[in-house]
Amino acid sequence: MNAVNNLVAALRDPASVAALDGDGWSGLISVARAEVLLGTLAHRVADQALPPAVAALLNAARIAADQAQVHALWEAEMCARALAPLGVRFVLLKGTAYAAAGLPCAAGRQIGDLDILVPRDRLDEVEAALLGAGWEWVKDDPYDQAYYRQHMHELPPLIHGTRDRMIDVHHTILPLTARVAPDAAAMLADSSPLKGGGLYVLSPADMTIHCAAHLIADGDLAGGLRNLWDFHCLLSTFGDDAFWPALKQRAAHHQLWPATHRAARIAHHLFGTPIPLGWQGWHLSDRLFIRRLTARDGWGRETRPLTRLAFTIRAHMLRMPPLMLAKHLWAKWRTR
Amino acid sequence: MPATQQKWLTASADRLSIVTLDALTAVYDRASGQTHLLAQPLPEILAALQSGPANAAQIAARLTADFDIADSADVPARVSECLGELLAMGLVSMR
Amino acid sequence: MSHMHHMRVGPVRFRVASHWAGPIAELRRLYADYPALSGEAATATARIEAARPWRRWVRPAVHIGGDYTIPDALPLPLSQGLLAAEMAMNLQVALGWRQHLLLHASSVERGGRAIIMVGASGSGKSTLAAQLGEGLGEGDWRLLGDEFAMLGLDDGQLSPFPRLISLKNEAIAAMERLVPAARLGPAITGTPKGTIRHLVPRADAIARMDERATPALLLFPTFGGEPGLRPVAPSEAFMRLTDSSTNYVALGEAGFAALTKLVRDVPAVAIGYASGEQGMAAVEALWADLRP
Predict the structure, then answer these.
(1) B32 with A134: Cβ contact below 8 A
(2) Can you tell me the ipTM of this complex?
(3) How far is it, in rounded angstroms, from Cα C256 to Cα A84?
(4) pLDDT tens digit string along C155-194?
(5) Which residue in B28, B38, C206, C262 has the fewest CB atoms around it within 10 Å?
């Protein structure tokens, strides 16, 4: 089996690592690092019998991932303090939300930037409050600023001056230029507070749909395997008889049922995620997504460059009508 | 409430690991994962707040009781300044 | 990938792969006395590959990569392939190693006790450690490492990490007169740091790579600086060491505990010196004062 399949197998069935020899482990570690899943892998196989050097490496990876979550949650807390005077509801998204809510997919998960969702009509106040509390623009380039404001679903990224942490402030979950328009106001309205603080997370259905949108509709599938693992964990955590029809209805409301359904089929195929019988089955194009998600060799390198290129273009096309895309690429090229 | 009446509280003692190095004190905050190096009188202010929330004047009184401070008149003002620094680090908060 | 070598250096199990035979052949020669992995997993993978597929053949340019990569790093010409491999290996450790507190420092040992030398590039810490490790001073020093000092998180012990020593410019000629050619890599000219030549550490440094040492002195050397000694306060040492660590923040409280213990237990001194002899003499004098 190749290294990326070994990673999928190890996440799905931790006992499968018993079959790995030294080279198998080398490849698995490289691929897990490339997919930013080393901490997740470390948590998954914590109870398995491991070669001593691997056990030491994964133990350290687990501790480092736990520490990274401390930093991420603190950043959320600092953001909450900065925005408290506004009385605005802000919702944690992605990794920080999973960690704050104590969801299983948070175990070992790497968390990068802090992503939050705020009401679009409060965006200016939020921006001002963050700038007043020590955050600064990462890019002052007027083109980038204008590009973000006109076409993206978030403010240009901000970084905190002393803590060196980035924050992405979203007012909806997909770029304004994307062909589907999720109902961000409904997501905000249905978000729920976490115990013991002013922090909010999306409802289970919206959290799941956002994860699928991030995986299928939004990006170029880079880092896709980690997002798919998130998605798998969310479905495994939330999935019960009441959840499935609610998820489908809600996804349709956000125009994201095709993305959610595809993510569910792929997760079922790769990770054995339990999904309703009627959702199973196979679309021809699913194979393309799976090829892209598993496009790494035993050295952690991305393979199948042709498939990858196709997806890179696709990601931009989904976000932007062709003429705008040409303008964007031209401006990027000129500033090289 | 006037600003001077503002009550302050510090992180609970089990949240912080405090190691005196020399004139500077190293503080590790388990909640933030951050390390701070504090000069006098910041560690003393943190210590003074361990006995409960207090405003700047009360903190100043606790400090002057524990330490031999010659000119105690401007102590509350200096304490307020220091509290601002500790607030930015997340080591104290306002009640 | 078509060419590869693997070896253990201290606690790190490396595999290094390349599109080209040349740099791997150099690694194989220079790391010949290091233990092979013999069926064990690699815990760090370094790759040096073509920056673009066609650049394997046309004006070959070597990209530094592996499990961890710096996306914007400029590629090196193939003639600097060995340097690229060494840089790629360093990168994996700097960004991926979490089992020790990593200090960007050289270190030497004598009688089970160690000196950790910390300084910016050009401070002379590397040359000083190399000279001591070659037995050019009075004492019988063993080189623990040239690039990283690995501090144990549980016990504060220093784990040797005796990678190749990268000699720069003036330090090269002096060493060429002293060691057999078999211990030297090719002279690599035209790098951003001038000419670089790699030196295989002395046999004892490699053979005893699993023998740890207790830190006894923190040294902040400045080559060309005002000659003399200056004691360094624990808080200053603490600040400079966090600054020289690539993983202090990632380790959290374990890193804090290890580092505060180090700076409280071990004296710290800054030295300026104008020549290798002066530097080594200063080290010997400090060491003599330390002895119980």
Answers:
(1) no
(2) 0.89
(3) 31
(4) 999 999 999 999 988 889 989 999 999 999 999 999 888 9
(5) C206
